[in-house]
Amino acid sequence: MKRFLTILFSLFIFANSSLGFGNVKKEPEPEDTVSQQAVVMYVQNDIDKAFEILNSKPEQDRSAQDWLMLGNIMQDKNKIDEAVFMYKQAINKDGKYYKAHYNLGYIYLIQEKPNLALEEFKLAVKYKPDFAYGYYNIGCAYLQLKKYPSAKYNFFKAMDLKANEPNVYYNLAFTFKKMGKEKQANTYLDIYNKMMEDHEL
Q: Which residues, in sequence order, are bridge partners of residue 21?
């Protein structure tokens, strides 16, 4: 399911696991049968069954991945406070688990809490330095804070790691526009439009 926020010539916030951006939901193979069953149910979009299976595990036996999936389920159900709790539990289990930091940051970003989002996204890229979407959403958080040079820097970092993502160019165009640099804004907007046309072919 595609979950991205778009405001007319404003910003795109990545939030789609199946396309490789936003909430990180793709899980490596779990370490036990119960977790494996939950992953199967989740992938089949039976989130209630996945929740039931994971909830049957004692809390102390749940891995960071289990907590992440519980957070994703809560977010799918629009139970945001519960999702935040689950992501924090994943981080408590493994403080270097970049996926949990990223998903927590994403919630803060859509709640327009950019300073909290930045903290989490910066931890995500600290623990996974080649994580393009971490840098991208750092840029989005800086846009919310109107810190355009910092936004631009992180969008370029994201572009260096994943040059074929159109929305990076869109947000770069917006950033340059906010900085009063119309020529650069138009250049990146043209690239974005061309990439979108190519995707439609």
A: 16
